[in-house]
Design goal:
- The protein has 409 residues and is of the alpha/beta class.
- The protein folds into 3 domains: 143 residues, Periplasmic binding protein-like II (D-Maltodextrin-Binding Protein, domain 2, 3-Layer(aba) Sandwich), CATH 3.40.190.10; 90 residues, Periplasmic binding protein-like II (D-Maltodextrin-Binding Protein, domain 2, 3-Layer(aba) Sandwich), CATH 3.40.190.10; 130 residues, Cytochrome Bc1 Complex, Chain D, domain 2 (Orthogonal Bundle), CATH 1.10.760.10.
- It contains 14 helices and 11 strands.
- Strands 1, 2, 3, 4, 5, 6, 7, 8, 9, 10 and 11 form an 11-stranded mixed β-sheet that branches.
- Helix 4 links the parallel strand 6 and strand 7.
- The longest helix has 17 residues.
- The chain is globular, with a radius of gyration of 23 Å.
- The chain starts with 10 loop residues before the first helix and ends in a 10-residue tail after the last helix.
- The structure holds heme C.
- The site of heme C has 26 residues, from helix 9, helix 11 and helix 12.
């Protein structure tokens, strides 16, 4: 089982695996914590660890790791086996208040703080909520982060998707957009840099999956350390010290869900799901007709009419998350070398399985069979596969072992 794409801080999970793999073994310390040095809350996590250690008169050891890595998930069994060998507690782990708890196999402390995605506006703007933005306003969001979804409920706003938070912030600072929706700690860190103070204003986002509780993750064997941590936190909360330690990145205590859990999509990995359904293994496809020889003609799997119909259906059902040009927004890009790569090992049936079982992510399986087939034809066309005389059928798409590799349009 793999965990993939934690909403924004998705890299955290992989990051923890990295710690467990590379962090080494804790030396004789009374309290050892893992801190993601790539997280905007790293400084806060460090202060918190120091304060807890001081409170407990404990020797502190900090394992720093780079959690900015890879978003392709990792093996949980492996993770669980390793958990606890590198540190007692992983600090600053954000858990979506509207969704799940700790990663399976691990325990989470009582939340000690909360933060999340926020609306950011220039300080001279009077807008304080999404509803106050005039129709047609451009709002910057970062690729594959949760706020891309908010355009579904706010169709009067225009998404301006950026590849990084830094780029979204630049668009806002340069007045290219009216607002941005970003991870609060990143914005706070930006505002702490010289010359940016007071430039932007931060407002809460009352949308699903915007609020996160901060916890420490631990392996059950470290229950005693976790208990001591929670006690120290309770004392510091009572004295007001905790609030000072968390500011300005987070506030103390936990937040409640905006909507009951399970309304939006589940964050389970579509790729993993398709693999397990289709039984695809990451071994090379040996089928003779479709060797990856450059002069091997690509198979014509669909008709031009199907692709045309598919384009319209894609626009209607998928573009809000995958972008009108398949470039990716809340969901990944569905075109190009990053999507249909040799490395991804996709076959037509894998992608089609994802479509029919998981998409549209808000209402999986809700489209008629023909619509899914037409959309598949459109995806093939956009990834460079030729149209032919023979129609693609639902059953063929579900069983096709043709490799999906980007061939330019
Ligand atoms: C509400 C947003 C949303 C809508 C609408 C949506 N998707 Fe997705 N889609 C996602 C997200 C998020 C993922 C990534 C899920 C994951 O990897 O766990 C995804 C993943 C996929 C993938 C797998 C891509 C990969 O590289 O792993 C395909 C294919 C896909 N979507 C196709 C579609 C199609 C076709 C439609 C329309 C019928 C659609 N999606 C509608 C959000 C959406």
């Amino acid at each position: 089982m793999n965990l993939t794409r934690h909403p924004r801080p998705r890299a955290w999970l992989a990051a923890i695996a990295a710690v467990l793999l590379y962090g080494g073994t804790a030396a004789a310390a009374d309290l050892s914590v893992c801190i993601d040095r790539s997280s905007p809350t790293a400084a806060m996590d460090t202060r918190l660890a120091q304060a807890v250690a001081q409170h407990e008169h404990a020797m502190l050891q900090i394992h720093r790791f780079d959690g900015s890595g890879d978003d392709d998930g990792f093996d949980l069994d492996h993770f669980n086996k390793l958990a606890g060998h590198s540190c007692d507690l992983v600090l600053g782990f954000p858990i979506d208040a509207d969704a799940h708890g700790a990663p399976p196999g691990l325990k989470a402390s009582t939340p000690y703080g909360h933060t999340g995605f926020v609306l950011v506006t220039p300080s001279d703007s009077h807008v304080a909520s999404l509803d106050q933005l005039p129709d047609g306003s451009s709002v910057a969001v970062t690729y594959q982060t949760t706020p891309n979804l908010y355009f579904i409920d706010h169709r009067n706003l225009v998404a301006d998707v950026h590849l990084s938070d830094a780029s979204s912030l630049r668009a806002l600072a340069g007045h290219k957009v009216q607002a941005a929706m970003l991870w609060e700690p990143t914005v706070r860190r930006y505002l702490a840099a010289p010359g940016t103070k007071g430039r932007l204003r931060i407002h809460p986002l009352h949308e699903p999956h915007a609020s996160f509780n901060l916890v420490a993750l631990y392996d059950a064997r470290h229950q005693a350390v976790a208990d001591a941590f929670e006690q120290a936190i309770a004392t510091m909360q009572a004295s007001g010290r905790l609030a000072a330690l968390l500011a300005p990145y987070a506030r103390t205590g936990a937040v409640e869900p905006v909507r009951p859990a399970g309304t939006a999509w589940t964050r389970r990995s579509a790729r993993t799901f398709a693999r397990s359904c289709a039984g695809t293994t990451p071994t090379a496809d040996k089928s003779r007709r479709h060797r990856k020889d450059d002069d091997d003609p690509l198979p014509a799997l669909y008709t031009a009419t199907q692709a045309d119909l598919g384009q319209a259906k894609f626009k209607e059902n998928c573009a809000v998350c995958h972008g009108p040009h398949l470039e990716g927004r809340a969901g990944p890009a569905l075109k190009g070398a990053n999507f249909a790569s040799e490395e991804a090992q996709f076959h037509v049936r894998d992608i089609f399985t994802i479509l029919v079982h998981n998409m549209p992510a808000t209402e999986p399986g809700s489209l008629p069979h023909d619509d899914y087939v037409d959309i598949m034809a459109f995806l093939l066309q956009q990834n460079g596969y030729p149209a032919g005389q023979q129609q693609l059928t639902y059953d063929e798409a579900l069983s096709s072992k043709v490799k999906l590799l980007y061939h330019g349009e």
